[in-house]
Structure formats: C-alpha cells, structure tokens
Amino acid sequence: MKKLLIGLFFFLGSLLTQAQVLKESNVVSLKDSLTNVIVKKDSIKKPYKIIPRVSTLRSAMVPGWGQIYNRQYWKLPFVYGGFAVNIYFIITNQAKYSYYKQQYIDNFKVASPPSSAKITLYGDESGTQREVTSSQLNTFVNGYRRNRDGSYLFIAVVWAANIIDANVTAHLKTFDLTDDISFKIQPTLTSPDMMNAVYGAKLTFAFK
Asked: What per-residue confidence (pLDDT) applies to 89?
C-alpha cells in the first residue's frame, strides 16, 4: 500500500510538471504568433503615395492643402504669410481710399468747388489740418485705389504660385530615381565618307 501511494505521488508530480511545461510552451508560442502577426502587419504597410493631380486640385481649392498633402509643412508659413501681408494692405488701402474719396466728395463735389480745402490726414489723431487742392486729393484717392487693386493681384499671384509649387513638388517626389533607368554619354568615332574620322558623343538611355 505504501509503495502504491509513493508511485501515485510521483505520477501526479510528473503530470503537474508536464502541464506546467505545456502551459509555458503555449504562452511562448502565443507570444511568438502575436509578434509574427505584428511584424507581418508592419511589413505589408503600404508606402505613402503622392498623386500630382490630387496635390494640384487640393492647392487650387485651399491654399496650403497641397503642401500638406506633399508633407512639406515648412512651406505653410510662406503661403499663409503671403496671403496675410496682402490682405493687410488691402484693408489698409481700402480704408484710406474710402476716407480720401469721401473728403474729395465733401469738399470738391459741390456746386461751387473751391480751389483748395483743409482736411485732416488719415490716422492723424491730433486733428491737424492740411490744405490740399482738388488735384492733390484726387491723387491720394487714385493712388490708394491702385495700391488696393495691386494687392488683389498679388493674392492671385500667391495663389497661383501655391498651385504650381504643389504640382511641381508632387511630380519631383514621384519621379523614378531607381537604378532601372540610366543615362550615359559616350564618345564616338565615325567616318561618313570612309576617309576622314569624325569625333562626337553618343547619348544612351538604358531601361532595365
């Protein structure tokens, strides 16, 4: 009976040991499987692809969107800075244009216009008045109008430059620079009339 109990004890011990080993083996196997799945998932991750047409359309719709699509975030301050500066000049010149135009109407668009009139210059908080003629005031009006219209033109230029930059950058980023394409310049020697040798150069494009 004693031998039977001892044998049973050793038998149960071996079962527990095998179960523990099997459990540890399953844990290691599960970890390896998860690692393989993660590595496989990372390995099949698609590379970021830039499409020039998409970049161009986005810049045309929203300035700077094409640069974001091309992942050239450092260009955004230049794009929005160009718009901000011109918008500031539009607002400033429009305010001065409206002010001097109203001064011109009040002083010279009357039944008996004077040869000159005293006006307060725009932004002069002291209220000091300056005597100007109709021609001088009209020069102020036309000058600030031209400045305002010029700022509108520069906004269009900045917008167009933003579109062109996005398009060119997208094409450069998608240009094939692999070893499949090669370009060589080789010297050549020919004899068209079988008498005199002619030296030249040969351009060779190789596509693998």
From this structure: 96
